[in-house]
Amino acid sequence: MGAAVESDLRSTTTTPTPHSIPQTVDIEKAESQPSDCDLNPEIPQIFPCENIKDMTGNVARIGTRQSDTTNTTSMVLVPVGIKSEDNTTTFKCHLPGQPRIRLDEQNPGSHWDTLSDYLKENHLTTKLDGMFKWMKYVFVQTPSFLHIMSLHHQYAHDREVKIDEHPCLHLVWYYERIYVKPVPAYFYCAAFWRYIANVHVDVYRACLGFMRSYYFLIQYEVDFALACEKKLIPKNSNGQFPTYEEWCDFIEPFAKVRDVQVPKRYHYGELRLSRLNMAAAFFKRKLAFFHIYPQWGSFLTHSLGPLLTIFAICSVVLNSMQVSLQALDLNLPEDHSWPKWKAASVWFPIVVTILIAVVIVLAVSGVCIMAVVDLCSGIRTRRKKRKGDEKAGKKTHGVIW
Q1: Is residue 376 part of a domain?
Q2: Residue 157: which of 182, 141, 175 has the closest Cα?
Q3: Within 148-287, where are the H helices?
Q4: Residue 392 maps to a domain
Q5: Could you tell me if 156 and 11 are in contact, meaning their C-beta atoms sit under 8 angstroms apart?
Q6: Which residues in the chain come in under a pLDDT of 70?
Q7: Residue 21 in domain
Q8: Which of 13, 181, 195, 388 could pair covalently with 38 via S-S, beta carbons 3.0-4.6 A apart?
Q9: Burial 98-124 (b: 16+ CB within 10 A, else e)
Q10: Which DSSP category does 85 fall into?
């Protein structure tokens, strides 16, 4: 099935960003749709990377240097030597936590990905950003980055956390599972943030939105313990996890990131995979946005369920109609209880048909009502966000919806 259907998840490459920080970013043009966020001119469109510090207790193995003496903002990543106990200095010429990716763009090796390609593929959500314009009024998703439940409450909703490195699956949920992308080890280095803020602004904005989501995923110490258990957050350079206090100090600046400073995907929190799949089918002419069941047998089993239900309902209704018509044609004797049996044979199938019709009407009405409620909620949330309401669309704990 994978060969027959082209995946809609792979992020497309973008035009390389100049080696300088632009003062403004044309979000409307980049995302081909109106922004839902507060467009306050006082908010800088590029989040200051100086606010992001090194993780406490982590020894940075990478640094930055100018690649062009005529451009003071041009940078490249370089390895930083680490002294061992025997006074020898070691250099690791790769991204921290990702030895497959060398820092040298010009000489990545024959079987290594270049740094730029790796960063775009693993952090950009271009394909997903382009789908939200179809989901503004159809298959609505809550347009708020606050629409995220903490990790421990995901388990209260009987959701199992599934780790996936693909950026487009981060915080996408499907019934009893939710996909979460782990935090890379190189995010602990302030030098990395300075580098992408200068060289890859599109990647920088995507990483900001990604880390902001973790501010809401890990709200309590129990969330932090679960994240360590699931290896959602990396260890420090000493091989130990940071403490909860160190993590809070590190993640705190990302809480100040605003929607105008991140891609469209991170204007949203949790996303329903079922609605993404329907949007991909209707507007992208794909079988699905993401195939949980990659084999045709499993795919048809889940896809044909609604069709079999409709077929069964139609069969019951047609059989009921046939029974009623046959009962009307019978010439039964007038004595004993045969007339009553004939009346029951006529009216019982009619009652069954009416009950089925009532159930169908109620189900369709319920779906329509929920769709209208979601649509009105999305419109109301967008209006509040445009007025500067930072609490608009906040995810409840599900006790009182």
Answers
A1: yes
A2: 175
A3: 151-156, 190-199, 201-217, 221-229, 244-251, 273-283
A4: no
A5: no
A6: 1-43, 68-73, 83-86, 105-112, 298-299, 302-303, 330-339, 341-342, 389-401
A7: no
A8: 388
A9: eeebbbbeeebeeebbbbbebbbbbbb
A10: T
Same domain as 216, residue 355: no
pLDDT of residue 334: 62
Whether 14 is covered by a domain: the verdict is no
Flag whether the pTM goes above 0.85: no
Amino acid symbol at 79? P
DSSP tag of 239: S
Can you name the residues that pair with 82 across neighbouring β-strands?
A: 90
At 299, list the tokens: 């795919």
Return the DSSP state at 165: -
pLDDT of residue 233: 95
User: Is residue 262 located within the same domain as residue 357?
Assistant: no
Residues 348 and 261 in one domain: no
Neighbours of 332 (CB within 10 A): 13
Same domain, 97 and 222: yes
Q: Is 263 in the same domain as 340?
A: no
Cα separation, 357 vs 370, whole angstroms = 20
- d(C-alpha 165, C-alpha 151), whole Å: 17
> Is residue 2 exposed (0-12), middle (13-18) or buried (19+ Cβ within 10 Å)?
exposed
Tell me which residue has tokens 């403004």: 24
Quote the distance between the C-alpha of residue 15 and its chain's center.
24
Question: Rounded CA gap, 166 and 114, in Å?
Answer: 18
The 10 Å Cβ neighbour count of residue 396 is 9
Beta pairing class for 172-174 and 62-65: unpaired
Range of the domain at 367: 304-386
Number of neighbours of residue 219 by Cβ within 10 angstroms:
16
